[in-house]
Design goal:
Shape of chain B: elongated
CATH superfamily of the largest domain in chain B: Response regulator
CATH topology of one domain in chain A: D-Maltodextrin-Binding Protein, domain 2
Strand order of the largest sheet of chain A: 2-1-3-10-4
Largest interface: A-B, 31 and 28 residues
Radius of gyration of chain B: 25 Å
Distance between the termini of chain A: 50 Å
CATH architecture of the largest domain in chain B: 3-Layer(aba) Sandwich
Shape of chain A: globular
Number of strands of chain B: 5
Strand content of chain A: 15-25%
Structural class of chain A: alpha/beta
Strand content of chain B: 5-15%
CATH superfamily of one domain in chain A: Periplasmic binding protein-like II
Number of helices of chain A: 16
Order of helices and strands of chain B: EHEHEHEHEHHH
CATH architecture of one domain in chain A: 3-Layer(aba) Sandwich
Number of helices of chain B: 7
Oligomer: heterodimer
C-alpha cells in the first residue's frame, strides 16, 4: 500500500477533546501506520476551515457542524468536505453565571457559544428550546472565543455559555459559573468533534487518510482503556503546546468526576468518550444528518437539503471501514443509530425533513 | 469623488503589536476612514451593526475570527468584505485564501504605501463577486419562473387543446386582467391543478 503523503499536518483547537489526535502522535501510533502527524495548534474554527480549504492543513480536529456548514455553504464559500471519523462523544456543557444559579432559566438572557454552525450552538439552542425559551427570539446568543468565556461571564457581559471542556469546569473552579447542564444530558452519547478534511484531499490521498484514521483509532482505544491512561492523557494534553492549562482543570471530567458548582458531585455515566469499542468513532449517517435537521430548524438552511445524499457524500464510510479493519476496531451493523434526546424526541435518521419541522420551537 | 472606505479594525486582546500599529499608520496615510479599532468581545456585533463599515480587517490568527463568523452569518444578506492580516507572506496561501472567499490578505511588514492598492483591489474584487452572485441568483429565479410558466402552459395545452403560442397568449391575458405577474398566475394554475387533479 503506497502512502501518498507520509507527513500530515493536523490542526486542533486547545480543548480537552483534542486528546486522541494529540495522543496518536505522542504515543507513536502514526509511525506504526507509516505516517508522521505534525500537530498544528489553531486559534479559531474559522481559521481551521480556511486552512483546510487552502491546504495549509491536511486534516483537523473540528466541530461536526463546521464540516456541514462548509459543505452547505453557510457562512463561507461552499466546498466538498469529508468526515473521516468521529473523534469523541459527550463532554461539553452549558455554564450559567453564578449569580443566576438559584433562579429558573428565563427568557431574555445573554448566551455565548463557540461557532454559529457548530455543535455548541446546536446544544445551546436545543437545550433552551427544551426549556421553552426560543433561542433566537427570546435570548441573545453570540459567538465568543472559548478562552474569553469565563472573563466575560465574570465581568457580567453575558449570563451563560455553551463550550467544550475545560472551560466549564474552569468556570466552576474559578467560582464564576455553575454547570447547569452537560451536553450528555441533552443527548446521551451525542457526536461532537470529527476528524475533518476536504473531499479533494481525501480523494487524492486515500491511503494516507486510512493510516491517519487507523492511528487515531488506536489512540482512542488506548485513552479509553483505563483510568490510568485517561489520567496520563489529561497530564499530557494540559501541557503548553496543547491545551495549556493546569492538569487540575482537566482531569476530573476526563475521568467522569463532575461537580456543578452548586454542591452536587456525581460520576457521569456518559462523560467524554473517545472510543467505546469503536461506537464513538463510527461516522454514522444519522449523526451527520442531525446537524442538517437543526440548520433547517433554526433557519440556517432556507430549503431542505438532500439529507441522505449529502451525508453519504460527506461521511466516508468505506474509507472508515477499511481503516477500522487495519486498527482491528469493531463496526456497527447499521450506518444509522437511534437516540432519544432530552425532550423525549427520537432521532433515528428516518424522515429528516419531518423531524426538522416537528419541534414546537423553531425558526421556519 | 467617492467617499473614503470606512474600516473597522479588530485588534487582539493585548494590543500594541508592531504590525497592528503599522496597519493603523498605513490606513491613515492611505486616506481611509478608520471608524474604530475594536476588541472581539460581546459588544462586537452591536458595534458592527452601528458603525456599518465597508470593510472589516482582522488578524488571520486571531481567536476573534469565530465572532466575526457569527456576524457574517447574521448579516448574510448584506455581505461585506473581510480582510485578513497575517505573518504568512507565501503568495500561494494568499491566493488560496482568496479563492476560499477571503477578500484579501495584508501581509505584516507591508509598506504603508502598499496597503491602499491591496485594499482597493479587495474592495473591487468583493463588489465584482457580489455582482456575480446577484446575477446568479437572478438567473436562478428566472429559470424557476420559466419552469412554472411552462408547466402552466402545458396544462392549458392538454386540457383545452390549445397550441403553445395560444396557451402563452391566454396566460398573458389572464395575468393582465388579474393584475398579476405571469409567474404568479402560472403558480395559481398549478396550485388549482394540484388541488383538483
Amino acid at each position: 500500500m503506497q502512502i501518498e503523503k507520509d507527513t500530515v499536518r493536523i490542526g486542533f483547537n486547545p480543548l480537552t477533546d483534542c486528546a486522541s489526535v494529540v495522543m496518536a502522535s505522542v504515543l507513536g501510533f502514526d509511525r506504526k501506520h507509516g505516517i508522521r502527524i505534525v500537530l498544528s495548534k489553531e486559534t479559531s474554527w474559522a481559521g481551521v476551515r480556511d486552512k483546510l480549504l487552502t491546504g495549509e492543513l491536511d486534516a483537523a480536529h473540528a466541530l461536526y457542524g463546521l464540516v456541514y456548514g462548509t459543505q452547505l455553504g453557510i457562512g463561507s464559500a461552499r466546498r466538498d468536505m469529508a468526515v473521516l471519523m468521529n473523534l469523541n462523544r459527550n463532554g461539553q456543557a452549558i455554564t450559567l453565571a453564578r449569580r443566576l444559579a438559584e433562579e429558573p432559566v428565563r427568557p431574555g438572557l445573554r448566551w455565548a457559544q463557540t461557532f454559529p454552525t457548530g455543535t455548541h450552538a446546536m446544544w445551546l439552542y436545543y437545550w433552551l428550546a427544551a426549556q421553552g425559551v426560543h433561542p433566537l427570539r427570546e435570548a441573545r446568543v453570540l459567538t465568543v472565543p472559548p478562552s474569553q468565556m469565563a472573563s466575560n461571564l465574570a465581568a457580567g457581559h453575558m449570563d451563560g455559555f455553551c463550550a467544550g471542556e475545560p472551560w466549564n469546569h474552569r468556570a466552576v473552579m474559578d467560582g464564576v459559573g455553575v454547570t447547569i447542564a452537560t451536553s450528555q444530558q441533552i443527548w446521551p452519547d451525542h457526536p461532537e468533534k470529527v476528524l475533518a478534511a476536504t473531499a479533494a484531499f481525501v480523494d487524492a490521498h486515500p491511503n494516507t487518510c486510512r493510516a491517519m484514521v487507523a492511528a487515531v483509532l488506536e489512540a482512542s482505544r488506548w485513552i479509553d482503556a483505563s483510568a490510568a491512561n485517561r489520567m496520563a492523557t489529561a497530564e499530557i494534553i494540559s501541557a503548553v503546546p496543547y491545551v495549556n492549562t493546569s492538569k487540575d482543570v482537566i482531569w476530573q471530567r476526563v475521568l467522569g468526576h463532575y461537580e456543578d458548582g452548586m454542591g452536587h458531585h456525581w460520576e457521569d455515566a456518559h462523560s467524554l468518550r473517545f472510543h467505546q469499542e469503536g461506537a464513538a468513532n463510527f461516522p454514522y449517517l444519522s449523526d451527520g444528518m442531525w446537524f442538517m435537521t437543526q440548520y433547517r430548524r433554526w433557519g440556517l438552511l432556507r430549503a431542505a437539503p438532500d439529507y441522505h445524499g449529502v451525508a453519504q457524500q460527506v461521511q466516508r464510510l468505506a474509507l472508515y471501514r477499511e481503516a477500522a479493519e487495519m486498527a482491528e476496531t469493531a463496526l456497527p451493523a447499521s450506518a444509522l443509530r437511534s437516540s432519544t434526546l432530552m425532550d423525549g424526541a427520537v432521532w433515528d435518521g428516518g424522515d429528516p425533513e419531518r423531524y426538522a419541522a416537528s419541534f414546537a420551537i423553531g425558526q421556519r | 469623488m467617492s467617499r473614503p472606505l470606512r474600516i473597522v479594525l479588530i485588534h487582539p486582546p493585548h494590543e500594541c503589536e508592531a504590525r497592528s500599529r503599522a496597519l493603523h499608520a498605513g490606513l491613515a496615510e492611505a486616506g481611509y476612514e478608520l471608524l474604530a479599532s475594536l476588541p472581539a468581545d460581546f459588544h462586537l456585533p452591536e458595534a458592527v451593526a452601528r458603525l456599518q463599515p465597508d470593510m472589516i480587517i482582522v488578524d488571520a490568527e486571531s481567536d476573534a475570527r469565530d465572532a466575526l463568523e457569527h456576524i457574517v452569518i447574521a448579516t448574510r444578506d448584506e455581505r461585506r468584505p473581510i480582510v485578513m492580516f497575517t505573518e504568512d507572506d507565501k503568495a500561494s496561501s494568499m491566493e488560496a485564501a482568496m479563492a476560499a472567499g477571503v477578500s484579501a490578505y495584508v501581509v505584516a511588514g507591508l509598506q504603508p504605501e502598499r496597503i491602499k492598492p491591496v485594499l482597493d483591489v479587495a474592495m473591487v474584487r468583493f463588489r465584482r463577486e457580489q455582482q456575480l452572485l446577484d446575477e446568479l441568483e437572478d438567473t436562478r429565479h428566472k429559470l424557476a419562473e420559466r419552469k412554472v410558466i411552462d408547466r402552466a402552459k402545458g396544462i392549458l395545452m392538454n386540457k383545452h387543446g390549445m397550441g403553445e403560442e395560444q396557451a402563452y397568449q391566454k396566460l398573458r391575458t389572464m395575468a393582465m386582467n388579474k393584475n398579476l405577474k405571469l409567474a404568479d398566475l402560472a403558480q395559481r394554475i398549478l396550485d388549482v391543478e394540484d388541488l383538483l387533479g
